[in-house]
Write a structure and sequence with these properties.
By secondary structure, the chain is α/β, with parallel strands linked by helices. It has 14 helices and ten strands. It folds into two domains: 177 residues, 3-Layer(aba) Sandwich (D-Maltodextrin-Binding Protein, domain 2), CATH 3.40.190.10; 94 residues, D-Maltodextrin-Binding Protein, domain 2, CATH 3.40.190.120. The chain starts with a helix and ends in a 5-residue tail after the last helix.
């Protein structure tokens, strides 16, 4: 009874605070003018890039920055920008925003996908979608090096010969996803695995490493790919759309902060997928703080001077 009462009082206090603050998202405060608020979604690489963005801005300008963490979805991040609760989105992905925010069909060509989101975000929201940091966090089929060698696996198409014998570990959401989900994959590649095992995305890597699975669906920038020496199979039919990562900033914020676009551009094209894997692993595998990983990376590269 005491715990239930405590929870009820806590919920009431949170509700009051939200009412007083105008029902803004938790943790979001109004801009102080000299402080830029950088939004990060609730996964490792987004936090790393948000801290990296903050550090490079503070290094080259007189602005202070603060990180708004745990924006739980792309939709939440977009609404936070529209409401003026964040000034900069640290990580936006072409494939995600094309189909969600813009409500358009997926585009398989990376260059074309980038052109579309840049044009549409400018037209619809007056936001600047910067060019990519250099990494693409897309879905990827992964196997062990041993598995690849024994079965001559280089591309996804190479799986077809023995697909009925393979145990496939995959995020349950992808199995039901329309477009670039399992149903679309079967139609595109003509491959259907002998058995599928839905599991949390974070568990697939250990399952593969420990030979509980033969193949898994991974994220291309996950640090465990490098740490576990896994092999990514080439998506030779280009089934998955590109998910190139970029920062997004309202033109209003750029106009109010002359030179900010040049500072942000110092990060553009500087981090490839393999480097992002390494940075993610430093957090998820070596348990370093995202802020520390971001700052160490910038110092190592002299803040891209």
């Amino acid at each position: 009874m005491k715990n239930r009462k405590t929870k009820w009082i806590s919920a009431l206090l949170v509700g009051c605070l939200l009412f007083i603050s105008g029902c803004s998202l938790p943790g979001l405060a109004g801009s102080s003018g000299s402080t830029l608020r950088i939004g990060a979604q609730n996964f490792t690489e987004s936090e790393i890039m948000a801290y990296m963005m903050g550090d490079i801005i503070e290094h080259y300008t007189d602005k202070k920055t603060t990180i708004v963490k745990n924006l739980g979805s792309n939709t939440v991040q977009q609404k936070a920008m529209e409401n003026g609760d964040v000034d900069i989105s640290a990580t936006r992905y072409t494939g995600t925003d094309l189909t969600s925010t813009l409500g358009m069909d997926a585009e398989k060509d990376p260059k074309r996908a980038m052109e579309i989101v840049q044009k549409e975000f400018k037209k619809r929201y007056d936001y600047k979608w910067f060019d990519s940091y250099g990494f693409d966090n897309t879905y990827a089929f992964a196997v062990t090096q041993k598995m690849a060698k024994e079965n001559n696996l280089e591309t996804v198409s190479d799986l077809k010969k023995n697909a009925k014998n393979y145990r496939f570990g995959v995020d349950n959401i992808w199995l039901k996803k329309k477009g670039d989900g399992y149903e679309g994959f079967v139609k595109t590649y003509g491959i259907e695995f002998g058995s599928t095992f839905p599991m949390q995305i974070g568990l697939v890597y250990d399952a593969l490493k420990n030979e509980k699975m033969d193949i898994v669906l991974a994220y291309s920038t996950d640090g465990r790919i490098k740490a576990y020496n896994l092999k990514i199979l080439k998506d030779d039919k280009r089934f998955f759309p590109p998910y190139d990562a970029s920062p997004v900033v309202p033109e209003k914020v750029l106009k109010e902060n002359p030179g900010l676009d040049k500072v942000i551009n110092r990060l553009i094209g500087k981090i490839d997928t393999e480097q992002m894997q390494e940075l993610n692993y430093q957090v998820d595998g070596e348990l370093k703080e995202p802020a520390t990983v971001a700052r160490d990376f910038l110092k190592k590269h002299n803040y891209f001077e």
